[in-house]
Design a protein that fits this description.
Layout: E1 6-10, H1 13-25, E2 40-43, H2 47-58, E3 65-71, H3 76-87, E4 103-106, E5 112-118, H4 127-132, H5 141-147, H6 161-171, H7 180-185, H8 194-206
Parallel strand pairs: 1-2, 1-3, 3-5
Antiparallel strand pairs: 4-5
Helix pairs in contact: 5-6
């Protein structure tokens, strides 16, 4: 079995596919195969499963660094409180407030531990909210029309608004309807935005890249 000392746990498959593309777009080679990947990403199919998995992840014998990337959804502060209540006693220097640049701290056994709450450690939202920052022309009429869909009668729930807007906008690009990670790889979404740079800075520091 290949040792995976650097690990990142995420909520879903889209996170698992998008993050390597963001990192590579900033000049950090990810690796051609799963075995060569600079960081092993594990998706836990939802925040509840992810939260339950943290303890087992921290007990991995080969572990050097563990990152957690989760969605704020409608309440980033509540998401942070849940992590704090679960792990503040076990993880040294666990701060009262999540740093805007993301949490990175070192545990007693020298494992690096990090948290990033999508989209930017301060706002409501999710992966698609983060990706909306990468829309090349946010004042473009097509993006504004996608944002107006709910007002025009679209029936999706508020909690899915950012997801619906992003996929609606991607449906009108060339080629239409690309998956999120391919939209980043093909520069339909532009990963040079400062919000993306902030995430990459956190990632680079956490994993000593």
């Amino acid at each position: 079995m290949v040792s995976k000392p650097r690990r990142l746990i995420v909520e879903g498959a889209d996170d698992k596919r998008v993050i390597p593309q963001i990192i590579e777009a900033h000049g950090i080679a990810w690796g051609e195969t799963r075995a060569e990947a600079i960081v092993h990403i594990e998706d836990y199919d939802g925040v509840e499963n992810l939260m339950k998995a943290i303890g087992a992840e921290l007990k991995r014998s080969e572990l050097q660094a563990l990152g957690i990337a989760i969605d704020a959804d409608e309440d980033w502060a509540g998401c942070w409180r849940s992590l704090q209540q679960a792990w503040a006693r076990s993880i040294p220097n666990f701060p009262e407030t999540l740093p805007e640049e993301g949490l990175i701290t070192k545990m007693d056994n020298d494992i690096q531990f990090g948290v990033w709450i999508m989209p930017d450690n301060r706002s409501r939202g999710m992966l698609e909210t983060f990706l909306s920052y990468l829309v090349p022309e946010p004042t473009d009429a097509i993006w504004e029309y996608a944002q107006a869909a709910q007002r025009l009668g679209a029936s999706f729930r508020d909690v899915h608004r950012d997801k619906a807007q992003m996929h609606t906008w991607l449906a009108w690009q060339d080629p239409p309807g690309q998956q999120l990670h391919l939209a980043v790889k093909q520069q339909i979404l532009r990963p040079g935005h400062p919000k993306a740079q902030a995430f990459v800075d956190w990632f680079r520091k956490l994993y000593s890249l």
